[in-house]
Amino acid sequence: MESYWSDAPDFKGSKVLEEWVQTNEDVRLRVITWTPDTPTKEGVVVVVPGWGSVFEGWKPLIAEWSSRRKIVYIETREKGSSRISGRIRKSDFSVERISSDIVGVLTHYDIESSEVDWFSSSLGSTVLIDAFSRGTLSGRSSVLLAPNSEFKFPIWARLVLRSPIPKFTHSIIKRLVISAVERKVKEEGQKIRYRRTVLSQDLHKMHLSARFLAGYSIPSDLSNISFPCAVMTASSDKLHGMEKALRIVDSIPESVFIEVPSNQYAHEASVLVEIEEFQALA
Fold first, then answer.
1. Which CATH number fits domain 2-281: 3.40.50.1820, 3.40.50.10440, 3.40.190.10, 3.30.360.10?
2. Residue range 119-148: mean pLDDT, rounded
3. In sequence order, which residues have a C-beta less than 8 Å from that of residue 159 and are 6 or more positions away?
């Protein structure tokens, strides 16, 4: 599954660059940038995908978007592409560490966060909401797809999280996770993406990340977020939940809610209609 974590795709109408950006002395992250030949709007879109997400699932959207806007796509540290030296611990995968990495990537590219149009999903959205609320990051606008206010794992998963995971059990655990997700997810496209995501993971990183997330919830006070935000989700997305998304909308001042037909739709080029409509008003 190494192929999921290398070889940045070259799309028509843009130039691509793949780098491993050092965000602190122990961590380097895979970052892919696309620079359009003829941009339709100035500024940069920074994409922070979800927990363990592989690029393949975002390919239809980025293939079109990269011909219009400069895209910076950041693979966060729990993913198989990150290069972490030394012994890793649960605390290395805290939300604060992940947001600090994002700050490091922006610094590397000399990007001011207040000038960024953000697009994020799942854990990526959660990390950004946390960072926005604490003032660690800002933005020109932010589209937050399927944010998690907290991470609830089934009982069997909580038992696994408390225990060491010998390498010989990795394939069994991956099958259990895939089975649990597929029972909850109704959209076929979403099932395929999550199956591919789970199979491609470094389970040691994901285990430590999940152990941290099991005790995390977003800050209760989001009133410090003072730039335009949109929370995007689908009523059919049972994994993330409409009710929780609406609570986040109510908590962020003057944010808007964008309902899309499906989670899969939000990974396709078609969703640019909703994104660009929101960004034009931001």
1. 3.40.50.1820
2. 96
3. none
